[in-house]
Amino acid sequence: MSARPLPPNLSPEEYLALEEKSPVRHEYVDGIVYEMPGESKEHNEVAGNIYTALRPVARSRGCWVAFEGVKLWIPQLHRYYYPDVMVLCDPAETQSHIFQRPCFIAEVTSPTTEATDRREKLQAYRSIESLSTYLIVDPEARCVDVFHRASAGWQTLRLETGSVDVPCLGFSLPLEAIFEGL
User: Fold this and answer.
1) Measured between alpha carbons, how far is residue 66 from residues 92, 96, 99, 178 in Å?
2) From residue 137, how far is each of 22, 61, 75, 141 by CA, in Å?
3) What are the C-alpha distances in Å from 63 to residues 92, 149, 170?
4) Contact 74/124 with Cβ under 8 angstroms?
5) What is the DSSP-derived secondary structure letter of residue 168?
6) Using CA atoms, how far apart are residues 170 and 182, in angstroms rounded to an integer?
7) DSSP codes, 67-118
8) In terms of Cα–Cα distance, which of 98, 80, 83, 100 is closest to 30?
9) Is 151 helix (H, G, I), strand (E, B) or coil?
10) Is the pTM here over 0.70, yes or no?
11) In the beta sheet, which residues pair with residue 27?
């Protein structure tokens, strides 16, 4: 990750205690804690657009859309992340701010996060059994890289127009909605 690391070798419990008191967000990668950079107006606009488009569809299907500020715990990798947008449809997800079984994740890139989103998080998110779709959204280039879980493995597609299928919601998310206002 590109942000500066904090004290190494923290346990997940120590990380959660640190995070509870911290005025800034941090992600946790197997004992190492990284401060997250602030978001730009464009980043926030795109993440908000995705949330706004998915929320009514998710609610109608008994799902929930998390928009920044909530954690994703990947226990097999000992990682806590703050995805920009997650869709959660598993009724076993009962915590209020830490989740493990999203079916959809979107990360909006910035110059400081793009490498992490494309390498580290891609690898980590693909290990989540419930995940069917991971988006990497580039507001500057106005394109979306879509990673879909298929029977033959993960399929990748780059879109500059059209829409993104969100299978767990039975919904197609138009790129026009994602980039509205930019």
Assistant:
1) 15, 10, 10, 16
2) 28, 24, 25, 9
3) 12, 19, 12
4) yes
5) G
6) 27
7) ESSSEEEEGGGTEEE--SEEEE--TT---SSEES-EEEEEEE--TTTHHHHH
8) 80
9) coil
10) yes
11) 34
CA pair distance 77, 108, nearest whole angstrom: 22
Say how many residues make up the chain: 182
Yes or no: say if 103 and 123 are a contact pair by the CB < 8 Å rule.
no
* Rounded Cα–Cα distance for residues 175 and 170 (Å): 16
| CA 117/CA 129 separation, integer angstroms | 18
Q: Tell me the pLDDT tens digit for each residue of 67-116.
A: 878 999 999 999 999 999 999 999 888 777 899 999 999 999 988 889 99
Q: How many CA atoms lie within 13 A of 73 on its CB side?
A: 12
